[in-house]
Amino acid sequence: MNIILLGPPGAGKGTQARILVDERNMVQLSTGDMLREAKDSGTEMGQMVAGVMARGELVTDEIVIGLIREKLETTKADGFIFDGFPRTLAQADALGALLNETGQTLDRVIEIGVDDEALVARITARSTCGNCGEVYNDQTKPIPADGKCTNCGAENQFKRRADDNEESLRTRLMAYYKQTSPLLGYYYAKGLHTRVDGMGSMEAVKTELATRLEG
Ligand code: AMP
After folding, report:
1. Residue 30 CA, closest ligand 1 atom number
2. Which of 31, 123, 126 to mutate to test the pocket of ligand 1 (most atoms within 8 A of CB)?
3. Alpha helices in the chain (DSSP H)
4. What is the pLDDT of residues 55-87, one digit of tens each?
5. pLDDT of res. 154
């Protein structure tokens, strides 16, 4: 089963994708993670996109479609979770074509709906383990006092994303509403869109998401 998790920054796409990877043997394809990796390892493309990402704008369709194409051509999986891709109509068309080429289908597009006010609070409180990607939140899931990640045990590897600040978030939210939210209608028209309430606890969202996958 191939699914897209769709929602604004801070909706919980990455968190839910990680749960699906652990519990269902699916493969997460996060263009945000791929771009951060390219940036951190200092590749030419990584250097090119660093400023755009820091500002919270979208990188070009060509770059992200290229990244996804490469993964789809080289990765075997029971199912893919597209997290943070597609973000534009051109990317959505390209994904449809790529899946077609490889004899695959898109099965569900799950929107994780969250109130706008909650996003700022979530994003500015967010940190992740640099080793395994486990997500922490200053209020709801603080970094353990002993400095060890609860998931992988790595010590003092916690980091905050450079674009998790109020100014970048405003740009990222605007990009979501202007460029990405039209995808909700696009996939509704294709009969693929469904929505879960992303305001509940991680467990509650996970349970609702599971019903959407089975239904
Ligand atoms: P994310 O981790 O999904 O929040 O993505 C972080 C940043 O990477 C975004 O703010 C964009 O600058 C860039 N990015 C990630 N995925 C895409 C995409 N599908 N299209 C364009 N830019 C993207």
Report:
1. 3
2. 31
3. 13-24, 31-40, 44-55, 61-74, 89-101, 116-124, 166-175, 182-189, 202-214
4. 999 999 999 999 999 999 999 888 999 999 999
5. 96
